[in-house]
Amino acid sequence: MRNYENLVIVKPTLTAEEIQASIAAIEEVITSNGGEIAARDAMGMRKLAYPIGKSERGYFHVVYYSVAPSAISEIERRFRINEDLLRFVTIKYDTNREVAAWNQLVQKANKKASAPAAEAKTEDVEVNAEVAETVAEVAEESAE
After folding, report:
1. Domains held by the chain: number
2. pLDDT value of position 138
3. pLDDT under 70 in the chain at which residues?
4. At what angle do helices 16-32 and 72-81 cross, to 10 degrees?
5. How many C-beta atoms surround the C-beta of residue 37 within 10 A?
6. pTM for the whole thing?
7. In the chain, what percentage of residues exceed pLDDT 90?
8. Of 28, 9, 42, which Cα lies nearest the Cα of 109?
9. Predicted pLDDT at 127
10. Contact at 8 Å (CB) between 67 and 38?
11. Pick from 66, 68, 76, 72: nearest CA to 36
12. What's 91's domain CATH number?
């Protein structure tokens, strides 16, 4: 099994649910061909360098995975058929240096994915502390 990275650009005219369904279909294509997804990186809606089919923007999503080299042709064929994709690119990581870089990218993507959850927990704690302070102030004022 070799390491690969796929960057896909999804049409911006789709709704958020349709974009997520399209991303799920992309990942299903990879896993159905024997791939193991190591990490995902949703880069979000971005402006394109040049218009593609009258689209000025696109939803960028990167998938890092391992799969047998023989499966790449089928994965790319299924990507070409998918009308929701504006563009895609497959990058192969072959040498030891490239594999080390791929591992670092996977770690960054996993760290980035777990960071919003940690931020949300921190924000909840801060909000709860502010609510507790406000309740304490109100209780003190009503006691006086």
Report:
1. 1
2. 44
3. 116-144
4. 150
5. 14
6. 0.76
7. 69
8. 42
9. 44
10. no
11. 66
12. 3.30.70.60
